[in-house]
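Methods — Computational structure assignment.
A single polypeptide chain was analysed. Its primary sequence is given first, followed by the predicted tertiary structure written as structure tokens.
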Amino acid sequence: MLFKLTDIYKAYSGNEILKGVSFQINPFEKVGLVGRNGAGKTTAFRIVTGEESADSGDVSKTKGLKMGLLEQHVDFTENETVHTAALSAFKKLHDIEARMRQLEIEMTDNSSQEVLDEYAELQTAFENEGGFEYTAKAEAILLGLNFAKEDWNLETDKLSGGQKNRLGMVRLLLSDADVLLLDEPTNHLDVETVEWLENYLKEYEKAYVIISHDRYFLDKTCTKIIEIENGKAYTYKGNYSKYVIDSQLQKEQRQREYENQQAFIKKTEAFVRKNLAGQKTKQAKSRRNMLQRMDKLEAVEKDKSGGNFNLKNVERTGANVLSVENLEIGYPNLTLAENIDFLLHRGECLGVIGGNGTGKTTFLKTILGEIRELSGKMLWGTKVNIGYYSQQLEELDKNNNLIAEMRKINPLAESGELRSFLAQFLFFGEDVFKRIGDLSGGEKGRLSLAKLIYSKANVLILDEPTNHLDIPSREALEQALSEYDGTIITVSHDRYFLDQVATQIFSFEENKKVEIYNGNYSEFHDWKERRDEGQESRVESEEKSEITNRVVEEAKSNGLSKNERQKLENRAEEIEEEIAEKEDELKKLTLEMSDSAVIANQGEFQKINNQYRKTEKNIQDLYEEWEELLEKLN
């Protein structure tokens, strides 16, 4: 056991959040913690770490447990750079290294056995703690979490909020904690970086618990799911997809047990009433006492709706909704993407993906007419009525209440009509008079979707529509979009969402390119992997051929005998081939060291790092010999 929660209760201002939560996390477990927004997931993390205390119940931890918590707001030391912030995770190694440098200075005047013994002990500790590869490991994780080398010298106070969160993740992954507590770790990450993190966690040698609404991520990284529902915790073996099936079966079983107990209680109460004053008084009193001692089961609440995003009954557009030819997008003196060609038909859903800063939002703004295209043609079809959902939710007036905000769509609408409509999005009773500035992110997201759908738009342009929604709300939105009669263009990092709704993938790549693929995200991902593997093999073959040609060209004679010159040329060619092989090996080792699975396995990483240093030294020696031969040949 690493830690255990037993019968934890927690309330805020009389509102019970946790009502007897119990679960245990064991070494090496890979756990997903799921539940609706407000179910108490983050509260459970805070209680485990001691940031908050439970109203009642017990928290047990193994002695010396080292916990790593991914915080939503990360702080760094003043004047700290990205690189030094990453290395700060190795404070123990820094202290050992600093003491070793002190002893090295001291040994120039004092070579006593005591000093030599301390130095030897520190050397052993330094090696055992991974001192010879910690810098390489830190830099590999920086690259994996999308910090390019040119960003390593940036001061942390110049970073954006998203960059700070990613840097906090770097420090956490380097912390060597016994268990990682990750609260929404995929926030602020693009798809490529999320995939890197997935691979890292799959090979991570210790335990972790993940709170996430990213179902694809939970599927890839978790082998156990704990659901917090109605203040209780329920544990399931397997990944998220298996949990979806098993949880439904378990809820049905719990409901049957509740109904059976209720039937037994009614039957027993009838016996007590009938016989309490009769000949079977003793048995009646015994059964009454039994009922009083009985642990009463609770009925399983029906699944709360994630919302009723009814998107039907919109006006039909023409068959061709959006035609784009040789489009170039960006800003003056900054092209983000070019040579974009596609035709979007009525009823299709274009899923837009790509790294941060590659042009996704710029693309949306361009087709919406908010910024001008740099070149090319773009034409909307007939009868198009566009509705736009912004991930920043900036179209909402924070000073309005919900009814006033809906009236911006239809000023003549009756209050009753608007209240009924808002109820489909889980706004009931006095909720409709809340000030928008006081709503949570999820509530603002649902309100923004309500406005969009109320407008009866037949083309939806959605920028990260699932960002503020919990899993049930995402599922309701996916169901609605799959039944929608109109056309959709959506930017999203939610791969599960894209698998459910996308009919085409529009991927912003490096070098201003855009990939267009007919199919959903998983189909695109598999196709791209197969294609890239084929390209890698071809490039490696071309590089080796180029090196061989260069060797022959540079090996020229310089007054040597024919026999001597031939021997030197032969050796030069051998060295060039060896260098090419070693450089290929070095490239492969560099890729392996940057691989998330290798970084997560400390023994494997150390082995590859040692091989990297050895290969680097071999190349240096070969180049020195090669230069000497060239001098003789020239």
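Note: The first helix runs from residue 41 to 49.
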